[in-house]
Amino acid sequence: MAAPSGAATAPARIHADRAAGTLEIDWRDDHRTSYDAVTLRWLCPCAFCRGEAGLPGWLDSAPELTSEQTRLVDMQLVGQYAIAPTWGDGHHTGYYSFATLRDMCPCDQCTERRSSEGRATIGRPDHAGHAGDSRPEAGDDR
Ligand SMILES: [Zn+2]
Ligand SMILES: [Zn+2]
């Protein structure tokens, strides 16, 4: 299956339920994506969380997220292409593009697609098999 595009990344309906801490998106191709706040927080694409210029981000250190840090307090639409959640700790710099949200959809079908493409599942970074290519290829670890 090809990477999602077109109707697959166009939201027909977006529903953020702050009380339940969930984000639901219905796509134009009739697929439904549902994120819980914790999963969404781990996906934060901002430079602080993800790192930049080859440097690891805050989430790469596998921090213990507090309930404040995973509490969805607001959700802004960013143009036609992304949403920016605000979290209980005031963090709001992550712009989640619809393409990313669809691509990282946690449903069984999409998880299957990602694993068939050899891509990691979402969630906490896996320290054992960290796939960072910033590490130099070392052949002299003795
Ligand atoms: Zn962030
Ligand atoms: Zn899905």
Give the helix level as a range of percent.
10-25%
- Biggest sheet: strand arrangement: 1-2-3
Q: Quote the CATH topology.
A: NE0471 N-terminal domain-like
Bound molecules: zinc ion
From N to C, what is the helix and strand string?
Answer: EEEHHEEEHH
Largest sheet: number of strands, sense, barrel closure:
3 strands, antiparallel
Q: Helices and strands: which structural class?
A: alpha+beta
Q: What are the defining features of this structure?
A:
single chain, 142 residues, alpha+beta, NE0471 N-terminal domain-like, three-stranded antiparallel beta sheet, 4 helices
Q: What is the fold's blueprint, element by element?
A:
Blueprint: E1 11-17, E2 22-27, E3 32-36, H1 37-42, H2 47-50, E4 72-78, E5 82-87, E6 96-97, H3 98-103, H4 108-116
Antiparallel strand pairs: 1-2, 2-3, 4-5, 5-6
The site of one zinc ion has 6 residues, from helix 4.
Task: Explain this structure.
- The protein has 142 residues and is an alpha+beta fold.
- It has a single domain (6-116), classed as NE0471 N-terminal domain-like (2-Layer Sandwich).
- The chain is built from four helices and six strands; from the N terminus they run βββααβββαα.
- The strands form two sheets. It has a three-stranded antiparallel sheet. It has a three-stranded antiparallel sheet with strand order 4-5-6.
- Strand 4 (72-78) and strand 5 (82-87) form a beta hairpin.
- The N and C termini lie far apart (43 Å).
- Residues 126-138 have low confidence and may be disordered.
- One zinc ion binds next to helix 4.
